[in-house]
Fold Carbon monoxide dehydrogenase.
Amino acid sequence: MTPSSPSVNSATWASPAASASWGRGRVDPFGEGPQTGVCGADADIIVARNLCRMIAAGASAHSDHGRDLVEVLAGVADAMMEDYGMRQKQVQMVARAHKKRREIWEKFNITPRGIDRETSEMMHRTHMGVDNNWQTLLLQGLRNALSDGWGGSMIATEVSDILFGVPTPRPTTVNAGVLKADQVNIVVHGHNPVVSEMVSAACQSKDLLDLAKTKGAVGINLVGVCCTGNELLMRRGIAMAGNHLMTELILSTGAVDMMIVDYQCIMPSVEKVAGCYHTKMISTSDKAQFPQMEHVEFHPHNSEKKAVDVVRTAV
């Protein structure tokens, strides 16, 4: 990047992370000012994320164009419509909403038609040269939000309950004090219960517990952070070490032997913090990889074995 004149303040033109919930992350490309955002994202991450979102917007524009043509060619489009998630006229879970609420959605034409469809159209509308009416933009934003709440999010909740059990109130303890000096401390962090549930089962394995004792530990202490921590808390009563904003604090105790992450809410800065201690960092998702973490990819067919492997490594 080159400023228009030597007097230009780099903070006014440095790459912004427009998607950041903590504000637009700015870094100084000359190396004189901030080199990372609040979350630890550096210039490479910021630029890559912004570029990928631009690519997604462009792909959505082409895909939405194709969707329109597929709808016109309805007589021969049945197979093609499957690829666009268009078998249903609306997201099925919408039927759970109160009748009066559904009538409001219908009135404003914001009943979600498909989970991926609404996101794709939203990216298309916000692409350069497309929708320039703030009212129609916000209406599509509402429809996109409904496709999440009454689509993807609700389906994820239902399927998690089917696979792992319905949550119930359970007594437990929370905060960094749940880490134990005489045990192997493993922290799970992220959102995917497929990972955390398998790690939970591995931590209860007699073979691994016996192995921990041969290394001088009393046992294996599994605790959670953020959303996957809540999943374990409400289904298994497993202690919660803290929330998203406490991740670095928990690592800085120096008591964590391993942190296993999947995706969402994992800040880039946790790698650097963990590097100050003996903590082993493990990433498990192809969608969320970190340069300084050991990558052990979990899939439904191998998650049980992978969980045993990483817990053994922690011990």
